[in-house]
Amino acid sequence: MANSATPADSQNRVFILVTGANRKGNDTLRRLQDHLRSSTAPSASDRITFMPENVDLTNLLSVRALSRRLTQSLPKLDAIVLNAGLGGWTGINWPVAIWGVLTDLIHQVSWPSYKVAPAGVVTSPQTTLSTEGEEEPRLGSIFCANVFGHYMLAHNVMRLLRRSSSPQPGRVIWVSSLEGTAHLFDPSDLQGLQTYPAYESSKALTDILALTADLPSSAPWVKSFYAVDDNKDTDTTTTTISAPAVDSPPNMYLSHPGICGTGILPLSLPLFYAMIAAFWLARLLGSPWHTLSTYAGAVAPVWLALSPQADLADAEATYREHGGGRAKWGSSCDRLGRDSPASTEVDGWGYGGVVGPAVVDADQWRRRKRGAEDLTREEKERFEELGRTCWQRMEELRIQWDRILDRQEALPASST
């Protein structure tokens, strides 16, 4: 999802819904329109427009095509929420799942150990270059859907993000997962092709990129990611509204939806409702992360997308005052289902990158993952170095694939 406003009227906002399936996109569009009509003032319908778009995040040519459509039809983007993804699980280890839920409910429905997924799953060929005598490198399917497709899309629309004419810069908001932890990520296997929890690896990479984006050690590659390539074919002759002159790099934030009921893990209807019941029981027992509904799961990313910049700065101020930086903001709720965004502890980064015990009162009393320990200076240094390495390798991969896609698009139509 992204939102954009015309320079003439900052209250006239356009929300763009990006999805990989027409049926799902149409259903979501209908629900958004129904919600707009039923829960807002009548004048809001005149100010808000929903625009459905479709993209296959595992197809980089599809991502590039969407980028061009957006660049040609919008003057700017205030925020993009990078949410779509792929789980890749093929089943559940039922003996482990049943025993875990019966003996360790909260932990097993928050950080499950029973999901089954294959390793080494790759995307379909991105180009026809292999038939032209060139070899195309392998591209991990989960990695591409959850990280690299978003990464390429965000870079390709950077021109629009840098033009945000709001009182604050544009925003790139990554949606990660509670399950994404650094110990599940192998930097030598960036794409998770040799990693069995490929989904968890991809979400850990998301955390690492977003949390280290404003650190000096990552700056050269983040600057390259934020740059606009004026040589790209970004014809704006079809843009109906002139673009504002503002040009500043966006801010990057990290969120997760808590634990809610979705179809990302294939389950029959009775098992789906049994899962929801287990989530509800975990919430009653004190889990702060079981939002259950996708509506409540959207609290954190929506808060990051729509809050005034001063509010977000205030939320992270205590962490920065104690030597930290960006926080991972999760959708949380209490036993009664009252939802709110909450800082989330990250392996290797702690709460907001602060070394030692939690410095924010809410973080001190919130239930922690079993075995979690306070962040040490050595762990933080390793995390920062990991961030530098990941940013460098992601930029190298982006540049490599941009060249491959350029060569594909330069082929005669008969070759493609």
Could you name the key traits of this structure?
single chain, 416 residues, alpha/beta, eight-stranded mixed sheet, two-stranded antiparallel sheet, 15 helices, steroid biosynthesis, 3-beta-hydroxysteroid 3-dehydrogenase (NADP+) activity
Question: What features would you describe in this structure?
Answer:
This protein is an alpha/beta fold. It has one domain. It is built from 15 helices and ten strands. The strands form two sheets. An eight-stranded mixed sheet has the order 3-2-1-4-7-8-9-10, with helices on both faces. A two-stranded antiparallel sheet has the order 5-6. Strand 1 and strand 2 (9-19) form a beta hairpin. Helix 3 runs parallel beside helix 6 (141-156), helix 6 (141-156) packs parallel to helix 8 and helix 8 crosses helix 15 (377-410). The protein is globular. Belongs to the short-chain dehydrogenases/reductases (SDR) family. ERG27 subfamily. Keywords: Lipid biosynthesis, Lipid metabolism, NADP, Oxidoreductase, Steroid biosynthesis. GO terms for molecular function: 3-beta-hydroxysteroid 3-dehydrogenase (NADP+) activity. InterPro entries: Ergosterol_Biosynth_ERG27, NAD(P)-bd_dom_sf. This is 3-keto-steroid reductase.
Number of strands: 10
Question: What is the end-to-end distance?
Answer: 30 Å
**What percent of residues adopt helix (DSSP H or I)?**
40-55%
Strand content: 5-15%
- Spatially, the strands of the biggest sheet line up as 3-2-1-4-7-8-9-10
Order of helices and strands: EEHHEHEEHHEHHEHHEHHHHEEHH
Based on the structure, what is the oligomeric state of the protein chains?
single chain
Biggest β-sheet description: 8 strands, mixed
Counted up, domains total: 1
- The rough form would be described as globular
Name the structural class: alpha/beta
Mean pLDDT: 86
Rg from alpha-carbon coordinates:
21 Å
Number of helices: 15
The low-pLDDT segments are 5-11, 233-243
